[in-house]
Amino acid sequence: MKRTGKVYLVGAGPGDKGLITEKGLNRLHSCDAVVYDSLSSDELLSEVPENCQKIYVGKRCGHHSMKQTEINKILIELAQKGMTVVRLKGGDPFVFGRGGEEIMALSDHGIPYEVISGVTSAIAALASAGIPITHRGISRSFHVMTGHTMAEDGSVPPDFHAFAGLSGTLVFLMGLRNLPVIVSGLLEQGKSADTPAAVIQNGTLANQKTVRGTLADIEDKAKEAGIGSPAIIVVGDVVSLDLSSTLKEPLKGCRIGITGTPGLTEKLKNTLENEGASVEKLLTLGVKSHRSEAAMVRAYKNLKQYKWIVFTSANAVREFFAGLMEQGYDNRALGHVRFATVGKGTGRELRQYGFRSDYTPDRYCALDLAVGLKGILDKEDRLLIPRSKGGSPELNRIFDENGNSYDDIILYEVESLWKEGEPTNLSLEGLNYITFASASGAEAFFQQSPADVFDSAKEVKIVCIGDITAKALEAHGRKPDIVADEYTAQGITEAVIHDWSLKQSMLPLKSKESINCINNSRFDLKS
């Protein structure tokens, strides 16, 4: 008998991926299909299993790409196939999310479901903008209304007069295009023109913008600031308060796109976000192994002839030891070997396999690694260099000049994880920086990108991890703006902090004030 699946209606929160609940995240980790809309954080989609089916239904005010009845049908059909389904909805499923309609449809077909609440933007966006939704002595209640149901003829719903007469904080969701109707309706119902009001765009996200004023001028201020959807309108005395975060984060307001393999991008993402940046993964790369090919198989058989093994990346360490076991050897075959690593991160990876690096240069690059080893090696020492395809030729040049004998073998190569037919989604809009951590990553980026990818993003600065990566970028006509002094995730982060702080210090006072008071935003990257 075929098993009926189940559906979890999960609130994704207001936009900041960190504001989804732990329970909601756990459901994402174990689902067979996710049905999501435009209000969900795209990064949450990376939390689903590799084989999870992703179905976009594109619900956003004024832009419904799929009717609600069609969405209901999809949920029912997936569950009837025995699948575990997450219906990922922006904010909370029951706060103007039409979650009730979906539940009724599921119930009619006997499909089990669970609702997992989400943080609603009606509260979170205000808090992110420094506006408390209630405050002792100022507002003892709050009231939320959908703003997109105002009539096209400029009239307000029948119950609007009662809503307008309430004394607490008034919040309108999805109502930006009806801001004039809302303002005029509140004034007609007796609200003072001096009543504080604010509009918050992209609440809790890196590109959040907030404008504050009164009912008399909020329309003009929102238009002057270029506020767009999605936005929240808040009216009430609490708007006069500014309880914005005073935490000093050096990359606050900075949006960065990152590229690279999962190991590096996770590390880089964490270091950047810890400094206040908003990070977006632009391109994720995978490792294609060559460890079972003839050249590496011969190297494993002839390990006794090598005095040194040189690792230029943590990926190389992992691939090498995986191949060692696959070929029937273990660490006893390496008792006579000395190890050189390009940096501390590679050295830490080596220690995971029970070995310490015998040499790591002060500057983490292939050139310094080769130069440093040159002074240590004996002429008769033979080296094994298992590394990525397209590795730095500086190693070869230095070792050739020094007369060293070595085997430079392609152990793996880096390639894009995009699958044929998937949208690449390489939009650079709104980014301040893009980072590249390898020449292969730069190559993959340009292979996947349209030729004019930077034409609409001329202000985006390119950050790379070293000279070899810089040359790969230059080969595609894009010279990097910043080359990290230290070739690590922390090195990239420090380089960006330095440049971003210079940029902020050069802003005129008026611009700084608008960033502090109006544009609460963060920094982003992709990998």
Give a structural overview.
This protein folds into 4 domains: 6-119, Tetrapyrrole methylase, N-terminal domain (Cobalt-precorrin-4 Transmethylase, domain 1, 3-Layer(aba) Sandwich); 123-240, 2-Layer Sandwich (Methyltransferase, Cobalt-precorrin-4 Transmethylase, Domain 2), CATH 3.30.950; 255-285 and 419-517, 3-Layer(aba) Sandwich (Rossmann fold), CATH 3.40.50.10090; 288-416, Rossmann fold (3-Layer(aba) Sandwich). The two termini are 44 Å apart. The chain is α/β, with parallel strands linked by helices and 527 residues long. The strands form 3 sheets. A 9-stranded mixed beta sheet has the order 14-13-15-16-12-11-17-18-19, with helices on both faces. It has a 5-stranded parallel beta sheet with strand order 3-2-4-1-5, with helices on both faces. It contains 17 helices and 19 strands. Helix 8 (262-274) links the parallel strand 11 and strand 12 (278-289).
Q: Per DSSP, what share of the residues sits in E-state strands of 2 or more residues? A: 15-25%
Identify the overall geometry.
elongated
Binned, the helix content reads 25-40%
Rg calc: 28 Å
What is the average of the pLDDT values?
A: 86
The number of distinct β-strands equals 19
Could you say what the CATH architecture of the largest domain is?
3-Layer(aba) Sandwich
Distance between the termini: 44 Å
| Strand ordering within the main sheet | 14-13-15-16-12-11-17-18-19
- Count of separate DSSP helical elements: 17
**Which structural class matches the secondary elements?**
alpha/beta
* CATH level-3 fold name of the largest domain: Rossmann fold
Uncertain runs are 419-424, 509-527
Quickly name the level 1 CATH class of the largest domain.
Answer: Alpha Beta
**Main sheet attributes: strand count, strand direction, barrel closure:** 9 strands, mixed
